[in-house]
Amino acid sequence: MLNQKMGNGHEQHVADRLGMRRSRGSGNQWRDPIDARHNRLDTEYAFAADAKSTLAKSLSVSLAMWHKAVEQAGGERPMLALRFYTDRTLADVHADLAVSLLDDFADLLGAARLWEAAQPILKRLVHPDTADTEWLDVVIAEANTLLEEAQKGW
């Protein structure tokens, strides 16, 4: 009973926190495996998460566990969501961790850097300097440069 409560709570948290759809039956259905997922048709950064939680001080991650997550991800980016509960009340969490491919993390980091670089450009579009008659040309040039850098990769 405690293990089921622990797992259900963690799976729900992962789905809520990452904006995922939670799978029926904790991912044990053949047509809807894995615990929670995004839809790869909606976003380039669609993940499918296999959630594991424990009261112990450690949790083993094996290649078999990873291969299962990859297979069940079905095209989304696989992720293992690991939770370490503090005690049997399940009221406190010591750590919530996400294990993913380094390339997937690098893609997310690149997108975050692109977003950081784009913010000043977007702010200038929203709040233009009307005293500068060429402001729009400058903003467009900055945006084009940013997009070219993004296509080359960070």
Give a verbal description of the structure:
The protein is α+β, with helices and mostly antiparallel strands. Helix content is 46%, strand content 21%. The chain is built from four helices and seven strands, in the order αβββββαββαα. It has helices spanning 2-18, 63-73, 102-126, 135-152, and strands spanning 21-22, 28-29, 32-33, 36-37, 47-54, 77-85, 93-100. Residues 8-19 have a biased composition (Basic and acidic residues).
Outline of the structure:
By secondary structure, this protein is α+β, with helices and mostly antiparallel strands.
List the defining traits of the structure above:
4 helices, 154 residues, alpha+beta, 5-stranded mixed β-sheet, 7 strands
Radius of gyration: 21 Å
Low-pLDDT residue spans: none
The largest pleated sheet is described as: 5 strands, mixed
| Strand line-up across the major sheet | 1-4-5-6-7
Oligomeric state of the chains in view: single chain
> Which band does the percent of strand residues land in?
15-25%
**Strands, count:** 7
Helix content: 40-55%
SSE series = HEEEEEHEEHH
Q: What is the terminal separation in angstroms?
A: 47 Å
Q: What class would the helix/strand composition place it in?
A: alpha+beta
Number of helices: 4
